[in-house]
Amino acid sequence: MKKILLAAICFVGVQSLTAQETNSSTTTTTSSVTINETTVDDNYPFKFYFGFGISVPGDYKINDNLGAAGMPQLKDAMPEFIIGYNIGGKKVSVDIELAASYLDKKTSSDRIKYTGANIVVRPHYVILNSEKFTFSGGLDLSYQMNRFDLYERGNVIDLNNLNPGTHTGHINLYNKQLNVGPSLTFIAFKNYDIPVKLTTGYQWSVLSSKWESEVANVANSLREDGQGRFYARLSFYLN
């Protein structure tokens, strides 16, 4: 009887130790998974964002030619729509951003339509970082595409005569620029569902192609070298 009782006590003890080891292993594994997930989220917070802004380019050299011809000129300020992708860390943040702008200006006899695209890579050093806001500064490297079309208003296209030589009143021009410059970013409301981001910067054209056309050769063309461009963009993160 004593042997049976002793055997039963040993069996219960072994089962208890096994259960404790299993629970301990499960707890350790769960804690390890939690720590790893947190580390991944902190190191790789990839986030998309969208927004709007304003671009204020310096005076285009071609505005002198437009003014001399009595045509409407490119404006000093243009609205922008922005989409972007951010790779953020504790000390370094990088934006990859596309800003599109549009302008439609008319006079009683003429019309100018402008479209622009600005592709930006923006590496930043994080100066201040807290749970509620972030402040960073760095450099813009951007590729700018400008295109505009000039129209003489009131033109008529006759579908019975589609010979291009008989239709006038349309001038198409475009150019491309490589820009660099400083920028600053402030991110607020980080503890809310949609953080808000304000970015300002100034870009200089270090390389510029001449004005070209998709429909004709361009004589007496010029470059927009050294043109400056200020911008302010307000965007919202999509978590």
Explain this structure to me?
The chain is of the alpha+beta class and 239 residues long. 21% of the residues lie in helices and 50% in strands. The protein has helices at 2-43, 62-68; strands at residues 46-57, 78-88, 92-106, 110-129, 134-152, 170-188, 196-208, 228-238. It has an 8-stranded antiparallel β-barrel with strand order 1-2-3-4-5-6-7-8. The longest helix is centred in the N-terminal third of the chain and has 42 residues, at 2-43. It starts with a helix and ends with a strand. Residues 1-44 have low confidence and may be disordered.
Query: Helical proportion?
Result: 10-25%
CATH topology of the largest domain: Porin
Whole-number mean pLDDT: 82
Distance between the amino and carboxyl termini: 68 Å
Main sheet overview: 8 strands, antiparallel, barrel
Q: How many individual β-strands?
A: 8
Q: What is the topology, as strand order, of the major beta sheet? A: 1-2-3-4-5-6-7-8
Radius of gyration: 31 Å
Top CATH class of the largest domain: Mainly Beta
In terms of DSSP E residues, the strand content is over 45%
**CATH second-level architecture of the largest domain:** Beta Barrel
What shape does the CA trace take? elongated
Q: Can you tell me the number of structural domains? A: 2
State the order of secondary-structure elements, H for helix, E for strand.
HEHEEEEEEE
* Secondary-structure-derived class: alpha+beta
List keywords for this structure.
239 residues, 8-stranded antiparallel beta barrel, alpha+beta, elongated, 8 strands, disordered N terminus, 21% helix
